[in-house]
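Sample pair:
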Amino acid sequence: MSRHSRLQRQVLSLYRDLLRAGRGKPGAEARVRAEFRQHAGLPRSDVLRIEYLYRRGRRQLQLLRSGHATAMGAFVRPRAPTEEPGGVGSQPDDGDGPRNPHDSTGAPETWPDGR
């Protein structure tokens, strides 16, 4: 078996450190494994991308170790209560948020001066 390069050893060490730091935090171990699996197919020649991901992983490790992180997850858009799993649902307008510039027909609204 060939010896690992310095960068490979650093990445493997980061992987182990992330798994250790994520113990006891819901979702952390699964997220770490999924992230590493997702990028496992990167070509060894793509050193810039590997170094970028390594630095990103080091920052995540610092956050996990800081004690402020209680869980680890992915940012996803939550599904609205009226939304079906495969489609887009409509949400009632509560008047608090920004208005849609289109009326219910999809045509642009007209301004008070008729524009």
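The longest helix spans residues 47-65.
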